[in-house]
Design goal:
Blueprint lengths: L15 E3 L5 E3 L3 H22 L8 H19 L16 H15 L9 E2 L4 H27 L5 H23 L5 E2 L14
Antiparallel strand pairs: 1-2, 3-4
Helix pairs in contact: 1-2, 1-4, 3-5, 4-5
């Protein structure tokens, strides 16, 4: 059980923060940037949850579960692995959590029409929020990969897999939401530029 009794501690005033194992690092450390970006993605998902309306009943509970799982991802990234660590020594993202994302992708993608172009972020408000969340999750994934290049990719393998599948699921959910609303907004290569508009 987590118990927070004080919000400010003044221990970070010198540009450092504490990790899950009690060690202290700079607030710009790759590990801090990684779990901080995961937290940012989670915050955008909170906006998406609040935007869900009566027609989004199937999406809202998924997003709430994902928000909880993202705290697990953050806890995993916040706690360096110890040599000889055993299962249960620290909270880690599991393959089961990643597999659940894959199941949701397959379920929600099954009835979607095939894409004939890339999708622009937009459509309904919920879909737009999901696309923003997807983009931030992708950035979080890149941050975790960068951390992995510093400490060893095996140390963060499951968080990387989880974030990769999550971005895919958020894309599918945005399409699902739009399928019952305004529809996908498709990319038009070259846009609506009139022919011969390029300057010489």
């Amino acid at each position: 059980m987590v118990k927070l009794t004080k919000i400010y501690t003044k221990t970070g005033d010198e540009g450092e923060t504490g990790l899950g194992d009690g060690s202290r690092v700079a607030k710009v450390d790759h590990r801090v940037v990684a779990y901080g970006t995961v937290d940012e993605a989670n915050s955008f998902l909170g906006v998406a949850v609040n935007a869900c309306g009566a027609g989004d009943e199937s999406v809202r509970p998924l997003l709430l579960r994902i928000q909880n799982d993202l705290f697990d991802v953050g806890a995993d990234l916040c706690t360096p692995r110890k040599p000889g660590e055993h299962v249960g020594d620290a909270l880690r993202v599991t393959g089961t959590q990643t597999s659940w994302l894959e199941e949701q992708i397959d379920t929600f993608n099954a009835d979607l029409p095939a894409l004939t172009s890339f999708v622009l972020p937009g459509g309904s408000a919920v879909a737009a929020h999901l696309h923003v969340s997807r983009a931030v999750v992708r950035r979080a994934e890149r941050c975790v990969v960068e951390l992995g290049e510093q400490i060893g990719l095996g140390e963060v393998a499951e968080p990387i897999r989880y974030l990769n599948r999550l971005s895919d699921l958020l894309f599918v959910l945005a399409r699902h939401v739009n399928a019952t609303g305004p529809g996908d907004v498709l990319w038009k290569p070259g846009g609506d530029r009139p022919s011969g508009s390029d300057s010489e």
